[in-house]
């Protein structure tokens, strides 16, 4: 269940989720060209990666090509040169290319959201937690292991939305989490917990960047509201003891 490709395929089958998944294809030269022509900015990531490792941001601008990996940036005059360099980075690992989302920023740093969704003791999917992750300066991933900072969602949204609109956005994200759980479980029956990585663009569209099937619960300890972490652990224990 670690293949991002397999999970993406399963999610695409639900029409109410489909349009929130950035176009994703397997990495090869023809697809790289096509995706850059279509979107100008794309992300490349290992099919089975984690912690944001190996994730790259690639762009095409004014006839030049470039990519960023960690804080390293490289620039190229041709697609061929770009592709050769990326091939060195990806080595023999299976990679995906995904439409790049221009993530909203908080004090100049990109952020995304982690939405925790669990099968509750009544065997129904329930969104149990939500937390923002702010990337370290100049970084392209928000993961904690890559210097990202956890932050309450309300604080991040307050810069971009009124209080009432932010509350409505959170409700919509909770529902999206539940829909995603139901859809994935129909394909993977053992599934009990998921963590959605959701990126917001300027229009506040919630793009599902990835769905994790063993999401880290401990990040929720960083929220001021301790009841969130307690509930997440309670639900997790309820399943283990069966
Ligand atoms: N299409 C995209 N557009 C913009 N940013 C992206 C995109 N895909 C990934 N990112 C950024 O890179 C981060 C890492 O990507 P992703 O979650 O897909 O892989 P991962 O973190 O390595 O996997 P895991 O969450 O299991 O550790 C995301 O949290 C997000 O900040
Ligand atoms: Mg992730």
Q: Tell me the series of helices and strands, N- to C-terminal.
A: HHEHEEEEHEEEEEHHEEH
Query: What is the CA-based Rg, rounded?
Result: 18 Å
Largest sheet: 6 strands, antiparallel
Helix segment count?
A: 7
The name of the CATH topology of the largest domain is D-amino Acid Aminotransferase, Chain A, domain 1
Structural class: alpha+beta
Look at the structure and name the CATH superfamily of the largest domain. Answer: ATP-grasp fold, B domain
Instruction: Please count the beta strands (DSSP E, at least 2 residues each).
Output: 12
User: What share of the residues lie within helices?
Assistant: 25-40%
Bound molecules: adenosine-5'-triphosphate, magnesium ion
Low-pLDDT ranges? none
Shape: globular
Gap from first CA to last CA: 21 Å
The largest sheet has its strands arranged as 1-6-2-3-4-5
Strand percentage: 25-35%
Q: How many structurally independent domains?
A: 2
Mean pLDDT across every amino acid position? 96
CATH-level-2 architecture of the largest domain: 2-Layer Sandwich
User: Can you tell me the CATH class of the largest domain?
Assistant: Alpha Beta
